[in-house]
Amino acid sequence: MTQVNKTMVDVTAPGVKAQKGGVHPLTKELRRMENIFSSLGFEIADGPWIETEEINFDALNVPKNHPARDMQDTFWIKNLENTVLRTQTSDVQVRYMRNNKPPIRIVAPGRVFRNESTDARHEAEFHQMEGLMIGKNVSVANFKAVIEGFMRKYLEKSNLEIRTRPGYFPFVEPGFEIDVTCFGCGGSDKKCQLCSGTGWVEIIPGGIVHPKVLEAGGIDPKKYQGFAFGMGIERIIMAKYGIKDIRDFLNSNTEMIKQFN
Ligand SMILES: [Zn+2]
User: Fold this and answer.
1) Tens of pLDDT along 188-227?
2) I want to staple 221 with a disulfide (CB 3.0 to 4.6 A). Which of 80, 151, 196, 211 is the partner?
3) 188 CA → ligand 1 middle, Å
4) What is the CATH code of the structural domain delimited by 25-254?
5) Cα 160 to averaged position of ligand 1 atoms, centre (Å)
């Protein structure tokens, strides 16, 4: 029997193909969203993931007895009194208002945390894009124009329309739910899964910033007003591409991720 020379390299053997990397779909879509808001004159702002109870709840007019403050809904930090993993990117609103004077025009994308069990539509960790525009004459009309402009560009549908319905959120008054015309069927399919045949998709909650929130941010509500919104980033990407399970974003499933590169 001949001995195999272990140092010998078979130069005729096929090589191992290197896997090509790419940008994660969340990052890719987030950059697109940021670019659109930049083109609309919005600055990109950032904030910490670990936040004080005061900024995460009090300054945003969330009452002391609100269920969101419960241990079951929020991750409280052990050994650090009155500190949470932020439950929404609205904390950046407060931080920005305290350090800047109006006019303000920002979006704050980032990771948020909720202490809840996960399923196809819920994750304990997900991303939000907060928007805030404050000035002397900022109105609901500006709010609708910005959201409509953004959605038309992001979904590449120039005839897309929006509608507002009343909604309640402690940090805005009045509050709205914003729906866009169904980008799956355009409102023509009674069996459409995206809009359940209604022709509208609920996409962004928001409203006119509550005077108490402006005050907590050091802004005089008699002089200034504005709007704020908080959109779920995964939710919009899922609707756009027909992704059925939110957990696909964070579970390292390369089969899903590869489709975006
Ligand atoms: Zn539809």
Assistant:
1) 888 888 888 999 988 899 999 999 999 999 999 999 999 9
2) 211
3) 7
4) 3.30.930.10
5) 12
